[in-house]
Amino acid sequence: MRAELAALYQREMSEASSKSGRAKLASRLVESAEASADDVAYQYVLLRAAEKLAIQAEDVELSLEISTSIASAFAISEHKARTETLLKWASIRRPLPHDSRRLLANESLALVEFIVAEGFTTDAKALCNFAE
């Protein structure tokens, strides 16, 4: 399935060398995923690829929108999907712009309040470490 995706979007992926190019392609993949609701495996691969591109583009808002799409399309709790996305940001080792860091920290801390109340302490601990 991923090989199919790579073949289908090969030209676009090779041209998406800039952050804005990656963000545009991520948005296009989300649109394709929404149109592919009848093929859930393909939809999942498209959304995960879009999420990866959004993170590479350093587009925090887009990546979180995609996590919400993943949650709603696949009956995953939104807090879990958002936590996974935020923790992917934590693995980035390059400096991010101040606004991106601030948004990530705010999103992480807001999510911690909810997940502590729900009893998901492992997720809360990971997000608190990231928000530091």
Query: What's the alpha carbon Rg, rounded to whole Å?
Result: 15 Å
pLDDT below 50 for ≥5 consecutive residues: which ranges?
Answer: none
- For the termini, the CA-CA separation is 37 Å
Shape: flat
| Largest beta-sheet characterization | none
Quick structural summary:
By secondary structure, the chain is mainly α.
Give an account of the 3D structure.
- There is one protein chain.
- This protein has 132 residues and is mainly alpha-helical.
- It has two domains: 1-76, no CATH class; 77-132, no CATH class.
- 80% of the residues lie in helices and 0% in strands.
- The protein has helices spanning 2-8, 10-15, 19-35, 40-56, 60-73, 78-90, 98-118, 121-131.
- The longest helix is centred in the last third of the chain and has 21 residues, at 98-118.
- The termini are far apart.
What is this structure's SSE topology?
Elements: H1 2-8, H2 10-15, H3 19-35, H4 40-56, H5 60-73, H6 78-90, H7 98-118, H8 121-131
What characteristics describe this protein?
8 helices; 2 domains; mainly alpha; 132 residues; flat
